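Usage example:
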Amino acid sequence: MTAYEIISKKRDGLSLSAEEIKFFINNYTTGRIADYQMSALLMAIFLNGMDDQESRFLTDAYLHSGQVLDLSEIPGIKVDKHSTGGVGDKVSIILAPIVAAAGIPVPMISGRGLGHSGGTLDKLESITGFRIDYTRKEFIDKLKTVGACLIGQTKEIAPADKKIYALRDVTATVQSIPLIAASIMSKKIAEGIDALVLDVKTGVGAFMSSYEKSLNLARTLIRIGEEAGKKTVAYITDMNSPLGRTVGNWLEIVECIDCLKNKGPNDLMEITHLLSGTMIYLGGKSESIEDGISLSKHLLKDGSAWEQFLRIVDAQDGDVALLKEPEFYAESEFKADFPAPEDGWIKSINAFEVGTAAVLLGAGRQRSEDMIDYKAGVRFYFKPGEKVNKGDLLFTLYTDKKEIIPFALEKISAAITTSPVAVSPPRLIHTYLDKTNI
Amino acid sequence: MTAYEIISKKRDGLSLSAEEIKFFINNYTTGRIADYQMSALLMAIFLNGMDDQESRFLTDAYLHSGQVLDLSEIPGIKVDKHSTGGVGDKVSIILAPIVAAAGIPVPMISGRGLGHSGGTLDKLESITGFRIDYTRKEFIDKLKTVGACLIGQTKEIAPADKKIYALRDVTATVQSIPLIAASIMSKKIAEGIDALVLDVKTGVGAFMSSYEKSLNLARTLIRIGEEAGKKTVAYITDMNSPLGRTVGNWLEIVECIDCLKNKGPNDLMEITHLLSGTMIYLGGKSESIEDGISLSKHLLKDGSAWEQFLRIVDAQDGDVALLKEPEFYAESEFKADFPAPEDGWIKSINAFEVGTAAVLLGAGRQRSEDMIDYKAGVRFYFKPGEKVNKGDLLFTLYTDKKEIIPFALEKISAAITTSPVAVSPPRLIHTYLDKTNI
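Running the assembly step on the lines above writes:
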């Protein structure tokens, strides 16, 4: 078995065996197969695909390139959520405290912003002092005592995925269903969870913009999860417009605080309760998803989720006082308002355009070595379906980079489409999928 | 313009512009684009192809990554031949002296053995002292004074191709028509030739085994050549059985000596005269290809080609005395004969199997750093279409590696298929192509 033969086989559209995939991944991770051979294989996988069995083998090879956490000492069904990424998607930060408050352990390993989309880790790190780099033992300890712990991918978790991800990012091989699926599922399975709720985004702001591809990704993810013995369900949800009213790390944390105080915007809360309610059901704390959603809403209303959030932040060295008085956070040097040029109804806000504008404002990285300006971003005052009058503020942008303001105002305002007649808010939740209906 | 964007474009099946191809090739050659990005692009080209225009742009980018020889100081039409490679294909070594003897300058840059196929350079180097590494000035001087010079690819000639070829060889991206075409044509155009005869092999021992693919390759090569202002014609010829009776470097030189003394086997001489006759015609030394073939045969018969060969070898520091008494060359430590197990007619000898067996005997490299045993190889006593009687020697193998003999005997004898009834020799020359009939 050689790297050459394996590349040739996939190049010719054949299926790879478990042994071939393991051989390639292991030897790549340890440096015996070179980057240039891996990138040839990645392009062949991108163009010729992988069947369900190969995707499982690939997930397995990623998973066993590192350690798998054993959370058996923690009682209860451990449940996590994963979103395929979008703009303004701060759901994890609201949902983790809710689900933990329901008594379900939430071991959550999140990622950083990528391209136009934000990352939970970056948002959490905008909280002064918040740490995401705990050891395995510390992670398990916090999970046990606090009920949830939100960290980044450690070097012990699926190192093959980490190395391959960096290579995909520079070889135009990111948007491949089997590669995305193995990357997501290996990390989630490595967390030691028992069940997983997937939020597969679809639309212009998602990595899979077509509904058909999002559906295929969701199916692949569920098959891999179930095969690994994890209860796995997925929702396909809308990512045409940003979720909530803010895009940008600290702006989103402030919005999460509002949400946890039960003052969140409808779209964001609809998705959050759906996902947290499903986690509560899978965690065995409700009889149905509907009951889970009711419990989720209750835990928000009675303040338990907010208290739980403060405990999580405190345990992870974050500045809790700041969360109670977020107005003391440093402000961006520049703010720019954009008023509505005429009366009308907001039809849509192009999430991709807003996400890339936010990166330019400083909220994301243009190169992997860039520093993030946590204060930077955009706040919207209207959501799709809402009525605006001429002169109403549509959005405010926040940045320290004065020179980018005219371009960003132009780009974000152009991303907003309006209608002279009333439009209804977009449908947010498209499909529910589990092993019974894929 | 970034490497990432260019990879994405080809990944999505779009055509690349001249600027994009030049940007990628130049930056790769100078090390600003990494191997792993080039290999992703190579796999995307392999799987999504390139149109004629892109192939020309790629050839041009390869060509201008290095120097283009200016042979204008040498009078006459400079003509070369290129074969896409096969087993026992020693035609260049016989044809170069014939065509030079006709008064046509032959500037020939050849390659080494690759996989199961032999290489003209390795064969020439089996002649004691023969040098293939002259400078540009020395090459032009020898071409001027001797009439032909046979060298290897210098580092000034198409360095992009050299670097990319090495990468293709380890990333399973060799057999791609646009990549093969650009590699061949950039080197040939860089030689400073005016006309080119292509021998595109088809069959089990060729790199393009299907006739359809060989035809497509020939068409692409002709289009690129004509576009570059070079008269370019091609023959598609058979490479199912080895050409001639020997496979292995020194064994093939000995066979070339026989050929140059007008005692060569029919199949080999048929191909040689066809190609040399066509070169003579393109070089303006005959009124038609048929007349060129007659002149080729005449130059062999009257000894001019043999004298010319000795002059070439002498000018390139080869041991001319040895060519006159080849029996003084060192012999392999081991010889093994294989007698015919029964009466019959030889139907075919699988060139691919024979080529790979010859490599195992020591005649080729299994890894690029391997040393070649010039003495090693196989001599056949029968050609397809000939009658054998039980007990007649079918072939002899030559090697210094005793342990490989049983396996090689088995492999080569299994490569020979026989028939109980008479069969005709295979058709060797399939198609003639030039700009008027592609």
